[in-house]
Structures are given as C-alpha cells and as structure tokens.
Amino acid sequence: MARRPRLNLPHIPQHVVQRGNNRQVTFYTEQDYTVYLDKLKDYGRRFDVSVHAFVLMTNHVHLLMTPTTATGVSQLMQSLGRYYVRYVNNTYKRTGTLWEGRFKSSLVDSDRYLLLVSRYIELNPVRANMVVHPSEYPWSSYRHNALDKQIELITEHPVYQALGKDKSARKQAYQALFKSQMPDYSVAQIRDALQRTWVLGDERFKKQIEQQLGHTIELKTHGGDRKSASFNARDKNQQL
C-alpha cells in the first residue's frame, strides 16, 4: 500500500510523534533530554517553526508545532533526527538507526483542538504510570504552560494566550483544564488522526484545509460491512 502523502500547510499546527525503532529507548540520561531540547529550539528558529507543547518519553516524543512554511516541520524533524542519531551513536558507541521510519503527524484545528492536544501530550507520563500528575514530569512543556518554569523554546499559541489577560490568569486557566479526565473518544480521535496522517478538526476546518490544498482530503473506506455494528460504531467514533 502506498504511503499517504503528508499534509503540510503553513500556519496550521501539527501534532508530531516520533518513536524509537522497535520501541527502543532513545533517551538514556538527563543530558540526552537536554541535548534534544536544545537542538529542537535551534532548529525551530532556523526553520521558523513555533513549538507550543512537547513531551520527551523514554522511547518517543510528542511535539505540537506551527510552521510558517509548508516544509518547516519536515525540515525541522529531519535535521533534528539526524543530529540526535549522530549524538547518540557517538555518545554510546553504537551504530545503525534510532528512529522508527517516518514520523507521524496530523493537522490540528487550533480553535477546537489545540488545547486538547496540548493536554494529551503533557498527560503522556500520567497515562504511562510514570507520574501521578504532569507537574511531576520534568521533560514536558507542562511546567511552562501551567507553572512558573520558563522554557525558552516554547512559543505560546494565541489560543493559549486567550486563556487569560495576564500570565498568572493563563496558567491558572490551563491548570484547570487538567482537573477533569480527557474523554476516551477525544484520546481516540487524536490517535486516529496521527495514525492516518489525518486532520483533527470539524467539517469547517477540513473544508478550509481542502481549499488550501486545492483537493479533497476525505478518506476512502476499504472493505468491511457498512451495515455491521462494528463499522457503525467505528464511524460514529470518527464523527465525535
């Protein structure tokens, strides 16, 4: 099956995930996390890509970024990936690949989903049972977005800035988003959009993307009984 072309558009946020090959560990020491974040900041500036949220897990990363060009995110990820592989191989006297093929990404409707994706990203260590609360995990953007830590690589998205009239109000409002559990269907939507290199947004947003791309982006369903309960349940979940 041919690879689905990646949807890249300027000024549209992207949720990006890159995993270690065969789910192998990609970060071994604190220095590794620091090196990755420093280069993420550098390449973000070089390719004019704003980073709004991130989490570095032991064997994969999640990033929420907005490029100013159609190629910005791809250029950043390729440059960052190559640099970090060289760093790991040189540091730990290893050879071969580190990352699992192409990174996965989805376009994000900032009006409805940007803060949801940010929460999803920063809650990864909680879902993995590594910490009880995202504030306890040092390698995510939560401490910048919700607490008093200033992370230089973070650029606050206008949707985040609209949470309050000043920094304190914004952080309090952002903290409040984490007091309720994310609905299972929202988690499923985010994962499905990533898996299919898809669009996370409502019909208005999808139409906007189609106009910018100049062609339709609807997925075609292959196989399966359209009248079956499993198909209908899956179709319903995709519309939530």
Automatic annotation (TrEMBL):
<dbReference type="GO" id="GO:0003677">
    <property type="term" value="F:DNA binding"/>
</dbReference>
<dbReference type="Pfam" id="PF01797">
    <property type="entry name" value="Y1_Tnp"/>
</dbReference>
<dbReference type="GO" id="GO:0006313">
    <property type="term" value="P:DNA transposition"/>
</dbReference>
<feature type="region of interest" description="Disordered">
    <location>
        <begin position="220"/>
        <end position="240"/>
    </location>
</feature>
<protein>
    <submittedName>
        <fullName>Transposase</fullName>
    </submittedName>
</protein>
<dbReference type="InterPro" id="IPR002686">
    <property type="entry name" value="Transposase_17"/>
</dbReference>
<dbReference type="InterPro" id="IPR036515">
    <property type="entry name" value="Transposase_17_sf"/>
</dbReference>
<dbReference type="GO" id="GO:0004803">
    <property type="term" value="F:transposase activity"/>
</dbReference>
<feature type="domain" description="Transposase IS200-like">
    <location>
        <begin position="9"/>
        <end position="124"/>
    </location>
</feature>
